[in-house]
């Protein structure tokens, strides 16, 4: 084997694993490694103007491919910039392999410029973090990182790469990384136990999350729900784990206050949790989330989450698709006529209630059609009529997501992705990453004005690499979610409502997202009136290149 240095060998290892993109922001200590990229035309460097954006681009790409995705950050300062988005990737189980260069092992004693404990910084937001200290183990460590990132529960890993390691000769053989298979199913006796608990329920409830999408188990969870007549709710739910238009899909549990979720979870006498954890609120309930005596079943490939916060009666570390398919088969054979009849009655009742709820929402939307400032519902209705059937939506509309999803409902795995993990600013770079992974699909990213200002430089990356994604800024000139949350805070503490903090508003001066986009090479329009909506959408979708719509909408609060 010809001797090569680490900066070349690491690229060849990534290519051997089918990894062809690196998302990053260049720095001095990585300059030799980046210089080597020109020798590998099949390996593309996606250039971001800030490390937060590099991680968010990779997160979007990884969400579609569900494969290890490489991010390059610059030393301690670059890693510091990227940590917020690495937290997003950790909570969302994105298989990112994050690498950061550093000056070199020989400089450890010098406490030089930008010196930092990179591994210590990365540990809280990764599955595994390490530093390569021996050039003979560079590729072994890289393969281990790729394996850990890609093994459920997937998540980001971090490798610190000293420059002298990358400059040293490498004699390790380059071989593809070995990835374990994790599609495991429980025993027949365990399946029978689950089915018996569920069949005996009079008020069954199913709570699902993104583990369903990872396992491609949408059909299986839907079948179990239909057999039981159980309503399905989402927790840590950012993909179409169940078709949102299905009569048994109830929506998402609250993301902020556990008291909101408790109203849904506490009436149930049997709860099936699958592919998620309980519960992902910012202020979760500490007790009484389930009824006294309620049976709780938890199915997940992530053993850490089972019974982490609340006891369960049965926990199964297994693949959701295989497990739910077996549960459905057992229910079909074991449910009595009386149980089947009761389940059918629940289906009829839940179907009627959902139909009435949707009618009420559409009627409310109709009352504000044509108003100025605009409401997202009017824009979403028109977009739905022009958007290709197989388009992909990245949704960081946050407080306007409900309106968006009424007209463009998430139905199919791989065609809808919502923000997850809590980091603002994923909408623009997330859509760019998805478009890179799905170049033949129409990809449109929604974000708010607040979120957009965290990562607005990502528009330059779209223009620079000619990535034909579309973007909509829901410009309500405020941090609307903070206003909604503080209203709940006031109610919980019996504080009279009063003027919102000044820091919740984003105006004076007004932010012109259309002009910001144009300054970075992205075509854009500002939409403020109803008659501007249709032509703006048509132009955006037909334009050969990235395009942004600055949509000025009402900042009034629900109810």
UniProtKB/TrEMBL annotation:
It comes from the Bacteria. Pfam families: TPP_enzyme_C (PF02775), TPP_enzyme_M (PF00205), TPP_enzyme_N (PF02776). Residues 191-326 form the Thiamine pyrophosphate enzyme central domain. Residues 5-110 form the Thiamine pyrophosphate enzyme N-terminal TPP-binding domain. Keywords: Thiamine pyrophosphate. GO terms for molecular function: acetolactate synthase activity; flavin adenine dinucleotide binding; magnesium ion binding; thiamine pyrophosphate binding. Residues 403-550 form the Thiamine pyrophosphate enzyme TPP-binding domain. SUPFAM superfamilies: DHS-like NAD/FAD-binding domain (SSF52467), Thiamin diphosphate-binding fold (THDP-binding) (SSF52518). The keyword RNA-binding does not apply. One of its GO terms (cellular component) is acetolactate synthase complex. Its cofactor is thiamine diphosphate. The keyword NADP does not apply. CDD domains: TPP_BFDC (cd02002), TPP_PYR_POX_like (cd07035). One of its GO terms (biological process) is L-valine biosynthetic process. Belongs to the TPP enzyme family. PANTHER family: ACETOLACTATE SYNTHASE CATALYTIC SUBUNIT, MITOCHONDRIAL, THIAMINE PYROPHOSPHATE ENZYMES. This is Thiamine pyrophosphate-binding protein.
